[in-house]
Amino acid sequence: MTLLIDPVISLYLCLGLGYLLGQLRIGPVQLGGICGTLFVALALGQLGVRISPDLKETAFALFIYALGFTAGPQFFANIRGGWRYGIFSIIEIVCVLSLLALSIIVFRLDIGTAVGLFAGSATESAVIGTASEAISQLSLSNDTIAQLQSNIATAYSLTYLFGLVSIVVFTTQIAPLILRVDLKKEAQELARNLGSTEDDNDLIEGLPVFVGRAFRAGAVGGQTIGEIEKSRNWAIAIERVQRGDELIETSPEFMLKPDDIVFVRGRRNAVIAARVRFGDEVPVPQDTSFALASRAVVLMRKEAVGRQIRQLRHMAGPELQRGLFISSVRRMGQSIPALSGTILQQGDILTLYGPDQVVARATGELGEPVPPGDKTDFMFLGLGIVVGLLIGHFNFKVGALELTLGSGGGALISGLVFGWLNMRRPSRGSLPVAAAEFAKDFGLAAFIAAIGLSAGPDAFKLIKQYGLILPVLGILVSVLPAAVSLFVGSKLMKIETPILLGVIAGQHCSTPTISALVSRAGNSIPVIGYTVTYAISNVLLPLMGPVVVALAAILAN
Which among 218, 225, 213, 215 is positioned nearest to 259, based on CA atoms? Predict the structure, then answer.
């Protein structure tokens, strides 16, 4: 038992057992490591173990900076590109704050409990940090501040699970019933409208996306390479032709003869569909292969932002786009469908596939190559966090409210800016995806563990005081904003259902929800809407921490 009260042992025990507990599932919902860590910390907190406040603040600064760093490129891109989907993040905030104010008045919630309700029902753990720091700035005794901060953790633990289950069930089951749609059918139809020609089972069956085949020219003899490729919307490329014993590098003007053997490369289904235009298929002769490359590039070119993938071919000259394909698109760490109708945003990471020289030229035209390697630029990281902590010391007034960003809000703003700068120059300030995910996961988990350990002794008092009120409020505060967004999106804005449900998952910053939606839809179409609102809500919700504290302080008096 003595070992359990050692702060270092307790911290890692909270993380280990917490993530083990987080693997538990309730229907389609997984508890999650952060919530599991809090539950374990609340239990160990009964033994009186404490973690240094300095470690707690250090962990949160690391988490919130990494959160801003990864969200920065898409956040600024969405601001410049319009807030058509971003308005749903505003709906989330307005609805949750309104319901929270009503709950404070009716049930006389204290400041800490109100913050925990906000963070748990909105499933936004970062609010705990920004709000806890705001509470520490109030003119209250140290004991009262500690009590309010412990109430945050307890209320969060009581409302998070119910809020998470509610939003998952609402988006995957209730919303499609309300709209009277078959989510999977709608998602497949939308994918076809965006240019999908691939079998939905391709990935399950492990079939290759890109293939190369050899055919006799046959009926296409007398046509140019350019005419054939254009007739297939450039979904295939004929880069080499064997004429007799001679292997010829082709150009769009190259005229085929019926006995020529053409080497066709492209997306699997496009090559299969084009097969009927050629003669017999023949084995690919040996020693006819050529170097192909795959390279990731951060999309920066202004002319390409806001355009569909198919439109990029019309922007490029024939020699630049022939044989070049976009094999994948990543946005906010999420893979979105790389379909011909997919609209690209600044900061998207495109994986280009094709001949080495063509890929190299296209990379320079579209943006900045993602540098190889996985080393973190600690100079950039340290400077960014320091700048954020300095920003956090500024305060300002909004009417009767005196607000301060605090170290958490400052680090978030700094992360946004430094993430945007890294997008502009990927070779500088590197924070690889894996490193950023570790910083977010470990930083938040360590912070939550510290909060839970300090709140442990007071947790049962709050549970006895409010009973079932908090879980019920967690469900209401989670579902009602989603219901409002469903009405606005479907009736007023006419957004396609799969994308709209992804938007709702994003406004709630709920990764488990988008995972359940993708599984239910059968493809990744919902992610298109998710990334926009996720980037905006992931910034705005944590910044609401001090606002919730100020609002609760006013209404509680």
Answer: 218
Distance in angstroms (rounded) separating the CA atoms of residues 359 and 320: 8
Q: Say how many C-beta atoms besides its own lie within 10 A of residue 303's C-beta.
A: 11
Record the tokens describing residue 544, joined without a space: 């609401």
**Which distant-in-sequence residues (6+ apart) come within 8 Å of 160 by Cβ?**
35, 38, 119, 120, 121, 123, 474
Q: Return all residues near 262 (Cβ < 8 A) that are at least 6 apart.
A: 214, 215, 216, 217, 220, 238, 240, 241, 256, 278
202 pLDDT higher than 60:
no
Out of 98-112, 177-191, 271-285, pick the least confident.
271-285
- Flag whether 79 is in a domain: yes
Element holding 395 (H helix, E strand): strand 395-398
pLDDT digits (tens, 9 = 90+) for 441-455: 999 899 888 888 887
N-to-C CA span, the chain = 43
* Residue 126 tokens, joined: 């970062």
CA–CA distances in Å: residue 154 to residues 158, 367, 455, 470: 6, 47, 7, 10
Tell me how far apart the alpha carbons of residues 228 and 273 are, in angstroms, rounded to a whole number: 13
Asked if residue 32 belongs to a domain, the reply is yes
Helix 183-193 × helix 497-507 angle, to 10°: 110
Tokens of 235: 């979904």
pLDDT classification of 431: cutoffs 50, 70, 90: confident
What is the three-class DSSP state of 510?
A: coil
Give the closest residue to 237 by CA, choosing from 197, 290, 279: 290
Instruction: Report the distance separating Cα 145 and Cα 115, nearest Å.
Output: 13
Q: Token pair for residue 263?
A: 């080497």
Q: Are 104 and 470 in contact (CB under 8 A)?
A: no
Q: How far apart are CA 517 and CA 540, in angstroms?
A: 23
Calpha distance 26→340 (Å, rounded): 37
User: Looking at the domain assignment, is residue 13 inside a domain?
Assistant: yes
Q: Are 151 and 455 in contact (CB under 8 A)?
A: yes
Task: Pull the structure tokens for residue 419.
Answer: 């993430």
- Concatenating the DSSP letter of every residue in 118-143 gives HHHHTT-THHHHHHHHHHHTSSS-HH
Q: For the packed helices 433-466 and 126-136, what is the interaxial angle rounded to 10 degrees?
A: 60
Q: What domain range is 393 assigned to? A: 3-189+375-556
Residue showing tokens 């209730």: 174
406: in domain: yes
Residue type, 275: R
- According to DSSP H, which parts of 488-526 are helical? 497-507, 511-521
- Unique residue bearing structure tokens 């906010």: 332
CB count, 10 Å around CB of 360?
14
Among 47, 211, 188, 150, residue whose Cα is nearest residue 463: 150
For residues 356 and 340, give the distance between their C-alpha atoms in angstroms, rounded to a whole number.
Answer: 22
* 3-class DSSP assignment, residue 117: helix
Give me the number of domains the chain comprises. 1
Helix (H, G, I), strand (E, B) or coil at 544: helix
Residue 201 has pLDDT above 50, yes or no: no
Rounding to the nearest 10 degrees, give the CA dihedral for residues 137, 140, 141, 143: -80
